[in-house]
Each structure stands twice: as structure tokens, then as C-alpha cells.
Write a structure and sequence with these properties.
The protein is mainly alpha-helical. About 70% of the residues lie in helices and about 0% in strands.
């Protein structure tokens, strides 16, 4: 990997490990719906000029149905559930539970018949699920079982989104897909944001957290992701997902003083190890299937956009 590639890789690993901390701080004073609107609306405003200049939005009109399905699965529902859960669940635990997304992706690919699960990959699924069970069993007592259970929906949505993109929108520029989804989500959440707007002045930490979540973790993150893809390709770029949870844990423990015990560490290792085994390309993989090497252009990699979490 070139120096430029390493720069974008490390930057993105840090940026996409940061949202969990910023979300945890933000939801202390604003509602999840308001935060979804701020993040999606702000991200759309920042990214739209780049997409409009290329005239890419017009290509999306003929694909509005899968685009709506992607938006619901990847952003509208998971972000609201994640923001709601982090009112009770530690940011470090949230980052670790979301790290199980590749496992859910492997299951979806198998159910849809777009990939095969060999013994090694089945072992990875079992290991990853054991890691999630370890995290929930030992850490959720400190927060809320109901909030933690919502991560099942979050992880499924995050895994289903890239599958929809790979299946139905693989020929569209990734930047236009993401921006259009942010616009649609912002429009839907706008009425709720108005009804649930803060009634008193927000603290500086919350304002800065929302700004960072919007500017750094949304707009800048996707620009870095597209740049990373141009340097190393879509498949190698998704390796960054193994860095994000580690960053989330370090930030949560050091800045917010969150708990990190032996069980948490064991669950962390098991989840990432399971993800690695479950998502390694199968020798019998079907060409063009989600999760296998494809022929996308540098800016046409919607299947890889699921790498961005939080």
C-alpha cells in the first residue's frame, strides 16, 4: 500500500471509530430523531455540490425503488435505533456490537444464494456470534437489554444495505447514492426534528459533537473512503472496518471512562476473528456476488459503502 493509501486508511479508521463517542455525548441533550436530521441534512448539504456538479443525480431517478430500500435499511432505521440505544448503551459496547455486521452480511449472502459457506466460514459465524453473546451477557447488565437487542436490527440493516446496492445499484456512482440517501432521510426526519427540537440552549460539547458527527464522520469520511478506494481498491478498503471498533473502545474507555473488562476483551477478539473467517472469499464464491471481488470503478463501489458504521 502506498503512503497515500496508508494515510487514508488510518484517517478513515479513526474517523469511523469516532461516531460512537460523539453520538453518546450528543444524545444527552438532543433526541435521536433530531440528531438523525442534523447528521443527514448537514451531510447532504456538504456533499450535494460535488454530486450536482457531475450531474449524477439524474441517473438515480430510474432506480428510485432500490434507492429507497437502501436508505431505509442502511440509514433511516439503523441510525435512529443506534442513537436511541446509545442513551443507555456505552459507546464502546455499541462499536463492538456493530462490528458484527460482516457476520450478518455473510448470513444474508448465504440465504440469498449469492455465496457459499464453507466449514471455515461457518466456524467464523459461530465464533462471531459467541463473541456477541459474550458482550451482551457480561456488559449489557450495565446498560439495558432492550437497547442492546436493537443492535440485531441495526446490524441486519447495515448488512442488508450493501447487499441491495450490490444487487440493484452497482452501476451508479457511490457518492451520488450516498448523497441522495442522506437527502431523502433528512426530508423524512425534518418534521420530527421540528417537533423534538431542543427547548434550551445546548452545551458546547454537544454542539461540537453534532458538528463533528456531520462534517467529519459523514461528509469527510465518505470523501476519504472514495479516495482510499482509488488507492487500494474496494475490497482492500473494507478492511478498515476491523479498525473502527478498536478506536471506538479506546475513545469510550479513555474519554468517557467506560468499563472494559476481560469479558469485553474476549468478546472483542471473538467478534473480529469471526468476521475475518466468515468474510474471507470462498473458493466456490459466485462471480459478482456481494462480498467478492468485483469490477467496480473507483467511484462506482456501492457494495463497499457498508464499511462506514456509526
Amino acid at each position: 500500500m502506498s503512503r497515500r493509501g496508508w494515510f487514508f486508511f488510518l484517517a478513515l479508521g479513526a474517523i469511523w471509530g469516532l461516531p460512537y463517542l460523539l453520538i453518546r455525548v450528543s444524545v444527552r441533550e438532543v433526541s435521536p430523531a433530531f440528531l438523525v436530521f442534523v447528521r443527514t441534512g448537514g451531510g447532504a448539504v456538504l456533499l450535494s455540490p460535488l454530486v450536482v456538479r457531475r450531474g449524477a443525480f439524474r441517473r438515480l431517478l430510474a432506480h428510485w425503488r432500490p434507492l429507497v430500500a437502501y436508505t431505509v435499511a442502511e440509514i433511516a432505521i439503523p441510525w435512529w435505533l443506534l442513537f436511541t440505544a446509545e442513551k443507555r448503551v456505552a459507546s464502546s459496547l455499541a462499536g463492538l456490537l456493530v462490528a458484527a455486521v460482516p457476520i450478518a452480511g455473510a448470513v444474508i449472502a448465504r440465504v440469498k444464494g449469492t455465496d457459499h459457506l464453507e466449514r471455515r466460514r461457518l466456524a467464523g459465524l459461530a465464533l462471531g456470534m459467541a463473541g456477541v453473546a459474550c458482550l451482551v451477557g457480561f456488559d449489557v447488565g450495565r446498560s439495558s437489554l432492550l437497547a442492546a437487542s436493537s443492535f440485531l436490527v441495526i446490524v441486519t440493516g447495515y448488512a442488508l444495505g450493501p447487499w441491495i446496492l450490490s444487487r440493484y445499484l452497482s452501476g451508479l456512482p457511490g457518492a451520488s447514492v450516498v448523497t441522495a440517501s442522506l437527502v431523502m432521510c433528512a426530508v423524512v426526519y425534518a418534521p420530527l426534528a421540528v417537533l423534538q427540537r431542543p427547548e434550551r440552549a445546548l452545551s458546547t460539547s454537544v454542539v461540537l459533537s453534532m458538528a463533528g458527527l456531520t462534517v467529519v464522520c459523514t461528509a469527510l469520511a465518505f470523501l476519504c473512503f472514495f479516495a482510499l478506494i482509488k488507492e487500494v481498491g474496494p475490497m482492500r478498503a473494507t478492511i478498515v472496518t476491523y479498525v473502527n471498533p478498536a478506536v471506538a473502545v479506546v475513545l469510550g474507555v479513555t474519554i468517557l471512562g467506560e468499563h472494559f473488562g476481560v469479558a469485553t476483551g474476549a468478546g472483542f477478539v471473538a467478534v473480529l476473528g469471526g468476521c475475518y473467517l466468515a468474510t474471507r472469499p470462498s473458493k466456490r464464491g459466485i462471480a459478482g456476488a456481494p462480498g467478492t471481488a468485483g469490477t467496480y470503478e473507483a467511484d462506482d463501489v456501492p457494495g463497499a459503502l457498508g464499511a462506514g458504521r456509526g
